[in-house]
Amino acid sequence: MDLEFSGEIWLWKGPAPWHFVTVPEEDSDAIEAASAFVTYGWGMIPASVTIGDTGWSTSLWPKDGRYIVPLKTDVRRAEGLEVGVVVTVRVSLDV
Description:
Strand content: over 45%
Oligomer: single chain
CATH superfamily: AF2212/PG0164-like
């Protein structure tokens, strides 16, 4: 399953802060429908993600009925990304 969407980068200010992009509701519904085939537990969905010229392997996290894409520091640095920037995200799931 391949998805492409745009979303704003936001920061979770927990004890270990992380940057994320929220998957739109329609795409989250498609991921949820495939989740039984791909999840490895706790609702985490392994995925290959690309923003700009940078690709990486990660897991989509469930949050509030949708999924969120964690953005590694190396990815943000490579692409010059900051909180509030709207990015185009390409996600590939092995279904």
